[in-house]
Write a structure and sequence with these properties.
This protein has 81 residues and is mainly α. The chain has one domain. It is built from one helix and no strands. The longest helix is centred in the first third of the chain and has 13 residues. The protein is elongated, with a radius of gyration of 15 Å. The two termini are 20 Å apart. The model has no long low-confidence stretch (mean pLDDT 85).
Length: 81
């Protein structure tokens, strides 16, 4: 998620998740609904709060080319920076 995305309007519980997206990124799976953010239900979390993330769009993220981290094209190994 781009650092410029304003997370301040979200509840503190979601700000933690959004900040993690900004710092660590996400893995995007090309299946299911467009830009649908899912998670595992947990009694410690208000599962309905996740719907506040429905307005997040693809242009709120930047793509990162990680192909330079591959050891070789035929390997699943990666060199960590």
């Amino acid at each position: 998620m781009k650092a410029s995305f304003d997370i301040s309007t979200y509840p503190p519980e979601l700000q933690v998740v959004l900040r993690a997206m900004q710092v660590y990124g996400i893995l995007l799976a090309d299946n299911g609904s467009d830009w649908y953010i899912s998670g595992t239900p947990d009694e410690r979390w208000d599962n309905e709060m996740r719907h506040l993330l429905d307005g997040i769009r693809g242009d709120h993220f930047g793509a990162v080319d990680a192909s330079g981290l591959r050891v070789s094209p035929d390997s699943a190994q990666a060199v960590l920076p």
